[in-house]
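Quick log. Single chain, no ligands specified.
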Amino acid sequence: MTTAIAAACVALMLAAFTFDGGRSGNKSLSLKDAFDGKFLMGVAMNRSQIYRRDEADYWLIIDQFNSVTPENDMKWMHIHPEKEQYNFEHADKLVEFGEANHMFIVGHALVWHNQLAPWVFKTDDGATVDSTELMQRIRDHIRTIVGRYKGRVHGWDVVNEALAEDGSLRQSQFLAIAGPRFIEKAFEFAHEADPDAGLYYNDFNLVTAAKRDGAIRLIRDLKNKGIKVDGVGMQAHWGLTRPSLQEIETAIEMFSALGVNVMFTELDISVLPSPRQVQTADVSNRLRNTPAMDPYVDGLPDSVQHQLAARYASIFRLFKKHADKISRVTFWGLHDGVSWKNNFPVRGRTDYALLFDRDRKPKEAYHAVIEASKE
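-> predicted structure:
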């Protein structure tokens, strides 16, 4: 079988399983078509998908989404592993994929305290760099990467997760060495490298009052200084009951009032019990697995499938209500088999956080989202 014929067969298979669960015989709308004219529907791509190692993943992304974000391959440790070395191979492939399929391409993330290369804060003799040197490294990093993709990557998560849960600035090494100005300079450097690219602040738990208000203060301060900030990315790593719809709606309205686009940048909904009271996406915070923390190893009960579908439907009804304020919704992963939630905050669990199952088949939640778009 030739490669072309094999690809065509996979495309036909995907078309078959995007029918309306086989109930009506009519092919359901794709996610991107369902919300066309309202907001972009995006997905984070992993390296296997970038290199088309799985044809089913490849065609499903094309079929369903009109925006892509690299899950890891533009993070500092991967794209700039040594001071004088950049690795653009993987990022180039993602950008080429997005361009070939007329997608909105998001770069993630330029300045983040996690997944850094070891050299970032160190001199050649192992001492800690001073503020001047660190700012120069940030400048070179941003200008090189954003400059390479000028006019091709349409928006950038410029600064990621710079706030603590109480809304104050996170006590990172960036802050300790360079002070608060590293944030505004990062946005300035990105704007200089590509004046037309959208520039975003991205963080988790931005629906909680303290952190939300801290982000509002941060964005307002940047804008008052004349610094270009186009959007806020609200990471939506949520659960079946938290946060409340009211918390989400309040955040949408308050961020929109700043004059920036609202984006839900990392959407997934865990069905598993949380081992902590406060939800977090801090990747350094991992816990031990136990049977009580991993109850659905053999499959998700119908009752929980229904609950997940209802939760997704209610969220997308809210998104649709505020479509004039929301520019993009991006899922953090394509299907349950590649979701990071299988390993966070507890490694080795079996989660069901996305709209497609491990066989790439649309779940009840997928159909619920499509139906919500029609209401």
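Confidence is low (pLDDT under 50) at residues 1-26.
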